[in-house]
Amino acid sequence: MSKRHSTSAPELVNNGYGEQYTGTEKFPSATRESDKYTVQPPDLLPEVDRRYENTTADSVYMHIASKPPTLADYSEPTKKRTCGMPYKVVVIGGILVGLLVLACALGAGLGLGLKSRKETEGTGTQPSYPRPSAAAPRVADNTSIAAIIRGDGAGMLLYYQLANGSIVEDFYTNDTFALDVLRQNSPVKATERRMVPSQSISLGSPLSAASFLRDGEVWRSLFYIDNTTSVRTTNSSGLSQDWTNGEVIYTRDILPNSPSFTACSFEKVGLRLYVSLATGYIASAINYFPFYGYFAPWAHEQTFRDLDARAGCTCGPTFTKNDQTVQDVYARSAGSQLT
To answer: Where is the composition biased (Low complexity) (predicted)?
Structure first.
């Protein structure tokens, strides 16, 4: 189905910064150059939008998280060791034996470390932080996987959940998938690996992500469901920026594991998220951050009563049609048809 956009913003509630918006306010972009991407006369709306344009439900409280974590939030506590000098000769002898064993172990470790460093310098590249391990991490049995092209087009971002519930972001440069590189490296190793904060995430939560350029920076947004079946998002406003804490953005009655859980980035409009409701329908939430700024609120947009919440959905890239910017979203209808 093709989605077009009107000039009326959905009814919004408090955005977390003391500001409120109502459905009676005129959409702030009505006189901007970007109108040509969002204005669409009602008689040209595709059938699916005409069918659902009056089904907008009540808005819910949503906002983008704004408290970036620090490295201290993810660092492991330092183990303190105390070594006292005993007086008995037999104890001293035991300590000397222990030190001898420790010296042998450190010598072997340093030798391996120097060898690894030499190999890294020989490639002319710096190790990423945190450096991907040669051994694959233990992935959760029922992990979801989200893969997207990074906003700057430099490669692919892959998100998945570990057995302990943590979320991993792996980045693969485009040349990682060159045929000659694939022949030399099996399995393929990530260029960079990072841990993504995922406060209160449920084990086996669906994952969805989006990445785009904004003010020259690569933005990344990750969405997941927490252990109270609320949708949360964590965001990074640049490759050198920390991720925000996972903030609740959607609190409707969501179908467990939400088969339809798709984030879509719409250029010059914002972000959309499609979720499965326990009522059996698919709903969409939207964030108009290009118009409302960095701390734009999330709001419920539409409920699609003819789409099956038990099936997945996906969105394609934006394209131009009849001088309008369009994005197609595909889902299974209640009549078991792809629409």
So the answer is: 127-137
Residue 57 CA to residue 193 CA, distance in Å, equals 40
Phi/psi for 98 (5° steps) reads -65, -40
Structure tokens at 262: 């798709």
This prediction has a pTM of: 0.61
Give, for all 339 residues of the chain, the pLDDT tens digit. 444 444 344 444 433 334 444 433 433 333 333 333 333 333 333 333 333 344 433 333 333 333 343 333 333 344 444 455 544 444 455 555 454 544 444 444 434 343 444 343 333 333 344 455 556 678 898 899 999 999 999 999 999 999 999 999 999 999 888 887 777 777 788 899 999 999 899 999 999 999 998 888 999 999 999 999 999 999 998 999 999 988 899 988 888 789 889 999 888 788 999 999 998 899 999 998 887 766 688 888 888 888 888 888 888 877 888 888 788 888 888 777 675
CA distance 51 to 122: 62
**174 and 276 housed in the same domain:** yes
Using alpha carbons, select from 275, 273, 255 the residue that is nearest to residue 264: 273
Looking up residue 203, the CATH number of its domain turns out to be 2.120.10
Q: Please give the residue range of the domain that contains residue 115.
A: 96-127
| Nearest one of 123, 163, 122 to 139, comparing CA atoms | 163
Looking at the fold, whether 152 and 233 belong to one and the same domain comes out as yes
* Distances 306 to 55, 87, 103, 309, 329 between C-alpha atoms, Å: 11, 82, 70, 9, 14
Same-domain pairing of 228 and 315: yes
Whole-number Å distance between alpha carbons of 233 and 141: 23
Q: Has residue 181 been placed in a domain?
A: yes
Which backbone phi and psi does 145 adopt, to 5 degrees?
-130, 135
Q: Is residue 89 in a domain?
A: no
Q: Are 163 and 35 in a shared domain?
A: yes
Give CA–CA dist 325/319, Å, rounded: 6
Within its chain, how far is the Cα of 1 from the centroid? 24
Helix (H, G, I), strand (E, B) or coil at 94: helix
Q: Could you tell me if 277 and 253 are in contact, meaning their C-beta atoms sit under 8 angstroms apart?
A: yes
